[in-house]
UniProtKB/TrEMBL annotation:
Its main location: membrane. The lineage of its organism: Bacteria, Pseudomonadati, Pseudomonadota, Alphaproteobacteria, Hyphomicrobiales. Belongs to the ATPase epsilon chain family. This is ATP synthase epsilon chain. Produces ATP from ADP in the presence of a proton gradient across the membrane. It comes from the Bacteria. The keyword Transport applies.
Length: 134
């Protein structure tokens, strides 16, 4: 299967860089998969799981992202994430802290728009918490 270049960048570091066969992304309009020669696109990312398939035979690497942007261009895929954590490092306690921080964002919001955005992210984090628990 054809590969393409993928980079996952957070404010702290370059978390992943290399050739991959596919990446499933939690877009704000729904999940989508990027494969080699994907049409150019830009998308915002909601909190959720990114699945990176490096080879057809291997299990995908799963990473939790708190949000960000994805850009597909002729050079490959770049994800600029607010935060990214490998799933194996995402303990129930850490996810609970993420939820608590987002609950504080909802409570501290100074406008209805900011409150609605924070509440949406909070709902997505709670959904992720339920999905990981099963």
């Amino acid at each position: 299967m054809a590969t393409f270049q993928f980079e996952l960048v957070t404010p702290e570091k370059l978390l992943f860089s290399g050739p991959v066969e596919g990446v499933v992304i939690p877009g704000t309009e729904g999940d989508f998969e990027v494969l080699a020669q994907h049409a150019p696109v830009m998308s915002t990312i909601r909190p959720g799981l990114i699945a990176v398939r490096e080879t057809a035979s291997g299990a995908p690497r799963r990473l939790f992202v708190r949000g960000g942007f994805a850009e597909v261009n002729p050079d490959g895929l770049t994800i600029l994430a607010e935060q990214a954590i490998p799933v194996e490092e995402l303990s129930p306690e850490r996810l609970a802290r993420e939820i608590t921080m987002m609950e504080e964002d909802v409570a501290d919001a100074t406008s209805d728009v900011a409150r609605a955005k924070a509440a949406l992210k909070l709902g997505q984090l709670r959904e992720l918490q339920r999905a990981i628990a099963h």
